[in-house]
Every structure is written in C-alpha cells, then in structure tokens.
Amino acid sequence: MLAVRKVRRKLRMGTICSPNPSGTKASSEVCNADWMASLPPHLHNVPLSNLAIPGSHDSFSYWVDEKSPVGPDQAPAIKRLARISLVKKLMKKWSVTQNLTFREQLEAGIRYFDLRVSSKPGDADQEIYFIHGLFGIKVGDGLMEIDSFLTQHPQEIVFLDFNHFYAMEDAHHKCLVLRIQEAFGNKLCPACTVESMTLQSLWGKKYQVGGKER
C-alpha cells in the first residue's frame, strides 16, 4: 500500500528554492516544493508504493464558513444545537484542522490530500464544496489552486483521495468529475495501482495527478 504520512496540524513551511544557474541545488538547501524532482536517480524507478508520501488530514479545512449551514456530515442533534451562534463558533474551532492553504501545503511538501465533499442545501447550481462540519471552499477553486502549483513544478506528483461524499446524487458526482477534468486535463493519470507507478513513468507521460473516488 501507499505509505502516507498524515499531518494534522502545524505544518512547517520548508525552504522554497530555485535551481542554481548551474542546474544543481546546494546540498544544504531543503526544497520541499520540489522534493520529488530532487530525489536521487536510483529512486526514480522505485514503485511509489515503496516511497513515503507526506499527506495531510482533512486537507481542505484551513477555512470553513461559519455562516454556512451545518454540513450533512453532522448528526441531527448537532444541527439543532448549531442554531445557537456560540455553537457555530465552537464548531469552527474543531472543523479547522489545517493552518495552511493547498498551495502552502504543497510548498511544504505535502503530496497526499484527504478530501471530503458535499453538495450545499439550497444551492441550485449543483456545485460541490469541501466539508468538515461546516462548508469550506468550492472544490473547483481548490483543485485549480493545486493545478497552478503543479504547472510551476512539473515533476511533482499529487494524490487526491476523495473518500467521503455527503448529500450527493448522480448529478453532483458528474459535476465533481467535471471539475477534476477541468482543473487538471492531461495531468490526470489513468486508473492504475501505485505498485505499477514510478516517478519516471509518470514524468515520461507528464502525469501529475493520481487518486481515487471511494
């Protein structure tokens, strides 16, 4: 299985560095933003299942909307209590489990993202949002932020794990697939196992995004 290290809070920003004019990096530099590209050649053909991939838990929950409805991932009792404004403030404290945006996590070296999504009550446009008790940003906006980083770092690979779905019908799942395709296009790796993936094989085909919808 893919070895994933999940980081719940207080991710530390690494040094974001650019190659020297000679094309090499000083040994003292820690380039978390390009750590995959910086791996020694003998690891380029190692199955990704044998590499430790840093990941974050509830990766999207660096911001939630305190004014939004309580998410469908919560019990009815919580929804009733949340009518009290103080309860919403308390919910926000435990809903936010990250303190870095997607891009900041990527720059810190995170390559696995734990993603939970939901439709929003009363939202007529079938849009999908990240969810953890309260609603976060739109999924499409978050994916575009990740894509922007990948375009600037063409040898970095990310894994998107969509693992919780709330209040989603077929139309919502189709919307989610469309948002993923719109964001990443040809960067998307076709379905395959991490045991068969290597950095070299992905680089050769310019794939940068792997993942699954559970």
TrEMBL record:
Q: Which domain of life is it from?
A: Eukaryota
**Which residue ranges run through the membrane?**
none
- CDD domains, alphabetized: PI-PLCXD1c (cd08616)
Domain Phosphatidylinositol-specific phospholipase C X stretches:
42-214
Q: Which GO terms describe its biological process?
A: lipid metabolic process
- Entries under Gene3D superfamilies matching the protein: Phosphatidylinositol (PI) phosphodiesterase
* GO-annotated molecular function: phosphoric diester hydrolase activity
Name the SMART domains for this protein.
PLCXc
What name does this protein carry?
PI-PLC X domain-containing protein 2
Q: What is the lineage of its organism?
A: Eukaryota, Metazoa, Chordata, Craniata, Vertebrata
